Amino acid sequence: MSGEAGPGTGGPEIEGAEIEGPQIAAPGAADPKAGGLEIRGLEVRYGPVRALRGVHLAVPRGAVAAVLGANGAGKTTLLRAVSGTLRFHRGAITSGTVAFGGSRLDGVPAAAVVRRGVVQVPEGRRVFARMTVAENLRAGALGVPGRRAAAARERVLELFPVLAERAHQRAGLLSGGEQQMLAIGRALMAGPSLLLLDEPTLGLAPLMAARIADTVRQINAQGTSVLLVEQNAAMALALAERAYVLEVGEVTLSGPAAELAASDEVRRRYLGIGAPETDRPVGTDPGPGHERHERTRLARWTA
């Protein structure tokens, strides 16, 4: 195990250690005073293929956590495991636990997960193209009592005024950015306590991506926890309080988002910024203490 993090150091926890928070209870035993999302020792398989192994992750109530990683690292699978949609993709949790608010979610049908306050916005938006904007929003509120649905709709249109202007327009005719707004708005109609966002800025122009990021901040400021999967690492780390790096189905780095953003490894691999060693002019001496400053306090696994 490398790095200097550990108990009593003030740094991030070592992956695989116990995660502080409420004890994982049996299904149906949710405690409204309990904390947020807790994932412990999660393993997921698609038939013989193992997609996730030994994943530990936590999203405290009211927080934003980000998951970084290359394509195929297992980020979408992680969200499916939380939202209960793995079975739609012929996947299954083979070990470990997923809990929200002290209540177990692993093994719970997707519709029941939504009723427990966890809603996913899938990658690629997935709006109902032939339905109008208003109909898409109503679909997100299925099963929600009338007053709550009306309040949720008011909240969504306050966040996305353009959706009110496009209320009677077919969703398939919206721009990519507007479709992403609609997908997020549709999820918010269920009144989630935890929002799972899968690549919300994928394929969007920088200005629209910035607007989506601002919206995520507003949603979180209103009390909704967010688990964000995003390849725009700079944006994700700016939004999150804690971040995780997935590589080939395993968490290899985790810690406060600010520390990951300052890590040479993350800066080089996900932010496109050279490490100080490579940025230094050729032939100059890095000076005393260079090796010490190159160390990272991020928790990580080593082979």
What's the SSE blueprint?
Blueprint (H helix, E strand, L loop, with lengths): L36 E10 L2 E11 L4 E5 L6 H9 L8 E9 L2 E2 L5 H6 L2 E4 L11 H8 L5 H14 L1 H5 L10 H13 L5 E5 L7 H16 L3 E5 L3 H7 L2 E6 L2 E7 H6 L1 H6 L6 H4 L10 H5 L4 E2 L3
Parallel strand pairs: 3-8, 3-9, 6-7, 7-8
Antiparallel strand pairs: 1-2, 1-4, 4-5, 9-10, 10-11
Q: Could you give the order of the helices and strands?
A: EEEHEEHEHHHHEHEHEEHHHHE
Q: What strand order characterises the main sheet?
A: 6-7-8-3-9-10-11
Unreliably modeled segments: 1-33, 275-284, 289-297
Residues in helices, as a percent range: 25-40%
Gyration radius, to the nearest Å?
Answer: 20 Å
Structural class: alpha/beta
Strand content: 15-25%
Count every helix, treating DSSP H or I runs of 4 or more residues as helices: 12
> What average pLDDT do the residues reach?
82
End-to-end gap: 8 Å
Report the sheet with the most strands, covering strand number, pairing sense and barrel closure: 7 strands, mixed
Q: Per the principal axes of the C-alpha atoms, what is the gross shape?
A: globular
Secondary structure: number of strands: 11
Any descriptors?
303 residues; alpha/beta; seven-stranded mixed beta sheet; four-stranded antiparallel beta sheet; 11 strands; disordered N terminus
Q: Briefly, what is this?
A:
One of its GO terms (molecular function) is ATP binding. With 303 residues, this protein is α/β, with parallel strands linked by helices.
Structure description:
Residues 37-273 form the ABC transporter domain. Residues 274-303 are annotated as: Disordered. This is ABC transporter ATP-binding protein. This protein has 303 residues and is α/β, with parallel strands linked by helices. Helices cover 33% and strands 22% of the residues. The chain is built from 12 helices and 11 strands. The strands form 2 sheets. The protein has a 7-stranded mixed beta sheet with strand order 6-7-8-3-9-10-11, with helices on both faces. Strand 7, helix 7 (206-221) and strand 8 form a beta-alpha-beta unit. The longest helix has 16 residues, at 206-221. The radius of gyration is 20 Å and the shape is globular. The N and C termini lie close together (8 Å).
